[in-house]
Structure prediction request, 161 residues.
Amino acid sequence: MTIEEYNKSVTQYADRLYRFVAKNVKDLHFAEDIVQDSYEKLWKNVSQVNGEKVKTYLFTTAYHTLIDRVRKEKRMFYAETLPDRAESFASPGYDVTERVNEAVGKLPEIQRIVITLRDYEGYSYQEIGEITGLGESQVKVYIYRARLFLKNYIGKIDVLI
Prediction:
């Protein structure tokens, strides 16, 4: 990988990488640090990274850095009990995006990560498996469970509209 390719990767992937990390942590400064660490690791290994696989390398590095930091700081997030749907959506003027983000925030960490990679970033099951180190079938299981949780949490689409 050349320096030009490195600079191009910053331009192409920094925002997407930041969005991915920010969706999985609550502290935006924490997300910025993880993105910065990912690019620092890429810079240190610039001669060993294939220019065609830089995107996967960055997301894999960010994922592992995220997991390591969360474990280190013992900020493991566990899903809380589901609130009553009538109370949750009864107030007029709520934002649908806010509700969906709230629901995604309630997912267990690994499910939140794979659903973010799949539905927000558009990665294939195979690419998600490469990033997270999971098998393709396990990725599909986590995505299925996450979508089922979101469906039960949000309820019918009529409630949102």
Notes: The chain has a mean pLDDT of 80.
